Amino acid sequence: MQENNEKDELIEALKRCEAVKFGQFTLASGKTSKYYVDIKKAISDPVTLKKISDIASARIDLSKTNRIGGVALGGVPLATAVSLKTEIPLLLIRKDAKAYGTGGRFVGDLEEGDKVILIEDVTTSGGSVLEAINLLRDFGATVDEVITVVDREEGAEANLWNENVTLNPLVKASDLLKEE
């Protein structure tokens, strides 16, 4: 019952900060949608970001995680907030390696055998988070769970499941849409 209350409170917070918009939208994939989740509204609103962090942090098994990962850009403030709440070290995953400085795709310490839980903003097919998972696994880390704020329910869960990764959505698209 507490999970349902948390979900309802999060939906209300997302709507209150205007992160959920209804109308006709073209997504990055080129598809059209009758709703859009502008997660940048949520991550720039401290009340909503704290709510997301509190709910996500409560779902993490602290004994099985030693890195909180976030994929640039949307996952970075979310993972940072969860890292602060749980006191688990933060790991940021760049979309591309830097061509200067120390280079690389990771910001933060990562060691072979580390258990990383990824925090994602919105999942659709799961493509960008799967790329990060493969990168982390190639390095020798373990990734078996992704927490996402909103799952658009367009294949991410199945695609992640096929890679032995559980998708743990705080809110599903069907939850957002039934409220309208």
Brief synopsis:
With 180 residues, the protein is of the alpha/beta class.
Radius of gyration: 16 Å
Instruction: Count all strands and give the number.
Output: 8
Q: Count the DSSP helices.
A: 7
> What's the story with the biggest beta sheet?
6 strands, mixed
Subunit organisation of the chains: single chain
Binding site for orotate: 124, 152
Family: Belongs to the purine/pyrimidine phosphoribosyltransferase family. PyrE subfamily.
EC number: 2.4.2.10
Pfam families: Pribosyltran
Reconstruct the topology from this structure:
Blueprint lengths: L1 H15 L3 E7 L5 E6 L1 H5 L2 H13 L8 E5 L3 H12 L3 E4 L12 E2 L7 E9 L3 H13 L2 E10 L4 H6 L4 E7 H6 L2
Parallel strand pairs: 3-4, 3-6, 6-7, 7-8
Antiparallel strand pairs: 1-2, 4-5
Helix pairs in contact: 1-3, 3-4
Cofactor: Mg(2+)
Family: Belongs to the purine/pyrimidine phosphoribosyltransferase family. PyrE subfamily.
Pathway: Pyrimidine metabolism; UMP biosynthesis via de novo pathway; UMP from orotate: step 1/2
Question: Tags for this entry?
Answer:
180 residues, alpha/beta, Rossmann fold, two-stranded antiparallel ribbon, 39% helix, 28% strand, transferase, orotate phosphoribosyltransferase activity, PRTase-like
